[in-house]
Structures are given as C-alpha cells and as structure tokens.
Amino acid sequence: MMKFQLIKNVRLYAPEDLGVTDLLLCGEKTVAIGHGLDPTGLDVEVTDGCGLNATPGLIDQHVHIIGGGGQTGFFSLASEVPLSRLVACGTTTVVGLLGTDGFVKTLPQLYSKTKALCQDGITAYMLTGFYGLPPPPLTARVAEDLLFIDKVIGCKIALSDDRSSHPDATELLRIIQQVRLGGFTSAKGGVMHVHLGNLPDGIGLLLDIARRYPTLIPYISPTHMGRTHDLFLQGVEFAKMGGMIDISTGGTKYAEPWETVMEGLELGVPMERMTFSSDGNAGVRRRDPATGEDIYRIAPLDKNLEQTVRLITDGGLTPSQAFSLITANPARNLKLTGKGRVAEGLDADLCLFTDDWQLTDVWARGSRFMRGGEIIRKGNFEQ
Which residues contact 83 (CB under 8 A, 6 or more apart)? Predict the structure, then answer.
C-alpha cells in the first residue's frame, strides 16, 4: 500500500515562487499541490511546514562517487561516498564519474556504486569514459552504453589539461556523434561532459564546433568553467550561443563561485544557462606550510548549497533564481524530465529550509531521509 505524506503551509520555490501552499506525496511522486489540501479518509503522515521554505531536491551533476585522487600513489585514492554525505547537503540526484584514473577506479565499479545509491533510495546516474581516448565504454561503443545501460546518460572527456589525451576537433565530433545517437535513440538526451583544465586553449575547440555545428550545442557540457577568468570569458561566449556552462563550487577557481555567477549575469549570460556542481569526493592534496608535507582530504560536497545561499544573502538574487542553478538548470542540461522541479506527477524530491536557509528536511523519491536537521535514513553499511 502506497504511503501518503502531507506537508502543510510551506513556502514553495518550485523553483518558481508559488507562495505558501500544501504538498501531498504518494509513493515516489508529488500528487497534489494547493492550499488547504484535506486528504480525508487517507492514512497520512503530516509535516507542519509553517515558517519553512521548500525547494526541489538538489542535483549534483559532477561527483566522484567511487572516489577520485590517486595522483601520488595508491594511498592517495579517495574512498567511495557514503549516502549520508549526499543527504546532508540536500542532494537527491547525483551523477557519478571517473577522474584522471580509469584503471584502478573503473567503469564497472562506477556502475555498481550508481546502482547501490539508487537501491539506497536516491537517484543516481553515471557518465561513461574518463580522460583516456577513445573513451573506454562498458560495451563496444559510447552510443551502446547510453542505449543499453540504464544509468549511463553521457560521456566524460578532458580538454586543455596536461593530464588529458589532447583530443582534436575530429575526435570531439566523433564522441558527440556517439552521445547524440545513443541519447536520442534511448530517449535519454545525452551529453558530452567536458572537464576543463587551465591550459590556455580553454574551450577553443568547443567554440569552433559550436560555430560550425550549432545543432550540436545541446550535447556539449563544459565544466570547471570558473577555474580561470579567461576560461570563464570563453564560457560566456558559449552560453550566449545557447550552451550550458557548469561552474564548480569546489577545486581551483579564480573567484568565489557565487561571484562568478554574478559576473556572468552582468555580462549578459541568462541564468538558465549556468549550473553549479561540486566536483565532490575527489582526492585533494595540499602542502602543509608548517611541515612541508602533503596532506590529503576528501573534496567537500556541500559547496553547491553554500554558494547558492551566498547568491541570495550576498548577491541579492531571489531564491527562485539561485536554486535554479542546482535544480531546474542541471535537470534541463541532463534532459532529466522528472527532476529539478516540484510539480504534480514528478518525483517527490524535496528539501525544507529555515528562513536563513539551514537545511532541515530531505525527501528523495518520496522517502524521508532527514527530519529536523537529523539524518534518519542512511546507506547500507552506515547503520
């Protein structure tokens, strides 16, 4: 028997501001939104949302769910992400990918972790490929990965990085062709997710492709676009051509990510053309200034939410504008039609916040994972 849950008198940013309303959940879906919902005769768990703000569950489209790192030996490999770390920052949909290493950390491992997170109760997808060329798929081809492997929604490559395989325009076009074929045949959409390093060419090759073949722009998804200012300015040009640019809230950056978004808006980039992602759970190496020794830590996952709130508190944006960066915009970029919004018939992925944007409650696919700021449902082996 499906469970009903009613959230009453909550200020809903869907992400559009829909004012104070009620939400009725049934099973994994949101089934009704409106004032004074009264499901008489139903066995309903009621949550009082008075004084709280509701948003869609957050989407993080770049997470090393099986751990990144490994650049200074096996001991520098990061571990898998536990479910509770994702829930703690409101992430209900995650896209996992490989990093520099595609040999110790492998695509079968990534697929296994992706499926495990789904069994834990959130929504998870993955990208095939890594820094190597041609992209090593799980099947015979990238297109077949999208076609026949349920959780694969795109392909990752690297560009303008001294660790990349330095693809040329022809190689990039072939990958886009594979992503496009696999995407529209499987009805997934498909993206070529492009890691950008700090080499001076930036996204020059991608801009050339976009100018020559504008119909391919929706399949190109460059990330780490706030790494350098020159790279971001190239991203501004790409966004004005109709592309999506992803700004990492972790890792190397020329400015605070919320400031980068504000600069983009000032330069004429539409808000709907920008997204945040965390680059979380990578292995981060830092030099201890006191001892000169290397220190290793896990890259944080909570920077997306932190920087989104800064857009509201410091940038003066509305919650609807700010939260679109981690809800509706990445859902549109990834072609996830059931995600990124709160609407009748869509997945019941929800976050509740106080007026000062402290996270209090999380639902993923209709199941409650956080109540009153406390995680009440953890992943397997976390109990």
Answer: 117, 120, 121, 122, 378, 379, 382
313-355 pLDDT, tens digit each: 999 999 999 999 999 999 999 999 999 999 999 999 999 999 9
User: Residue 208, SS3?
Assistant: helix
d(CA 307, CA 263): 14
Cα 363 to Cα 123, 200, 293, 296, distances in angstroms? 11, 43, 42, 32
**Does residue 52 contact residue 34 with C-beta atoms inside 8 Å?**
no
Query: Where do runs of H (alpha helix) occur along 213-249?
Result: 229-240
Catalytic positions are: 279
Query: Token digits for 181?
Result: 């074929």
- Structural domain containing residue 8: 4-55+339-375
Q: Give the closest residue to 199 by CA, choosing from 161, 245, 157.
A: 161
User: Is residue 302's pLDDT more than 70?
Assistant: yes
* Same-domain status, 183 and 295: yes
* Residues 48 and 63 both lie in one domain: no
Radius of gyration for the chain, computed over Cα atoms and rounded to the nearest angstrom: 20
